[in-house]
Amino acid sequence: MKTKRQYSPRYLAVNLLHRVATAGSYANIALDQLIAQTALTGRDTALLTNLVYGVIQRQLTLDFYLQPFIKKPNRLQDWVKQDLWVAVYQMVYLTKIPDRAIFYEAAEIAKAKNRGAAGFVTAVLHQIQRQGLPDLNKIKSPLQRLSVSASVPQWLVEKLIDQLGQVKTSAILKTINQPPAASLRVNTAVTSVEKVQTQLAALDLPTKVSALSSVGLVRQGGFLAGTSLFKEGAYTLQDESSMLVASSMRLQPHHQVLDVCAAPGGKTTHIAALLSKAAGGHVTAFDLYPHKIKLLQQNARRLQVADLISAHVGDARHLDSVVPDQHFDRVLVDAPCSGLGLMRRKPEIKYARQPADLMNLQQLQLEIINQAALKVKPGGILTYSTCTIVNEENQAVIAQFLQQHPEFTPLPVQTDHPLKVATTPYLKLYPDDYGTDGFFICNLKRKSR
Ligand SMILES: C[S@@+](CC[C@H](N)C(=O)[O-])C[C@H]1O[C@@H](n2cnc3c(N)ncnc32)[C@H](O)[C@@H]1O
User: Fold this and answer.
1) Which of 51, 243, 252, 316 has the smallest number of CB atoms closer than 10 Å to its CB?
2) Of the residues 241, 258, 288, which should be mutated to test ligand 1's pocket, given the most ligand atoms within 8 Å of the CB?
């Protein structure tokens, strides 16, 4: 039987951080599962969420703060480090929580796991209280200071400065550690934005309309996947930037669409909602992984658009063997990418990526887009999108593609509302522009014969 302590948000946070670090789970998915399984109050859910995201977001900063107090970091057990991270995070960023409460909880968590470690945790925290934390402003190298303060690896800060300049990089780094907003796409195949907004408000979940997408609603925090509206398919959880993809594709109800990197189907189901079965519209969706195709099919059923979608396992690098002799009005390549635009929502990504990944991914992206191009009807449109913010995976892919494919020309990216960022020849959204994920969209029209 679980004790009261094991349901405390801090205990749950330490456990979850341990799982993310050791089993490679994504924090947002693991957190949603945990919240669904445990009957926490709204306040405890908010604290748990804050602790988990806050600690992962600020891991490099927290390591810097703890460094002078831990003599043998290599001998520190992972969960002891995570317990200390959670404690120091509260001391620095959640200033309303008194130190004595933080120390007591940190020691109790240590005791519950291994009695011997409780003394060590308490000693470290008391030493921090006596001596104070080291000062970030005293880091001599400006690059290292920016990296540690924003908790972003130095190679990535350097790359962003190189590609975007100091001012834009600082603006991005300032916003990526803010709590991510929750956003949902209303499923216009079955309901309307106004209706869902009213129904959510009645559940004490007020939302605001998205500034980017006419089918998006946003709110700061809250567990939106638990409502019966979600289960019935009235909406799905999706970042506002992702909602721009289907809207940009100039879809018509009768279109035949190929979605080659489709799972778990966020964009496939959005595309399907814009097609009409009666008019003959259809999406053929592929993904490399069978378990992801199952997820896509589940989502399609929940969102009541399964009859417009056929989903199969298939490799987008070999489309001729999966869709021989077929050509489509619209082809979407929502490419596998580094995910560096998701630093706020999936903060663990920034530590996992290595510089060499970007060029390896570029090769894969080029292979896929080159194959996808062969499946576009004359006069049709090929859409390339990613959730990353580095040139290698975005404009460099498009530039190389266009060199080899003069039959394609970029179109302005159509959006529901006028945006403050350029939409031609492609749309690059950074996390500081609208508080969304970082995203890239390019629409390429194939010449009519
Ligand atoms: C960015 S995600 C797609 C997200 C999806 N479009 C959505 O909106 O929900 C990229 C997808 O590409 C898939 N993928 C990776 N390599 C692939 C390949 N060679 N062929 C097909 N799919 C692939 C991954 O499994 C992953 O699901």
Assistant:
1) 252
2) 288
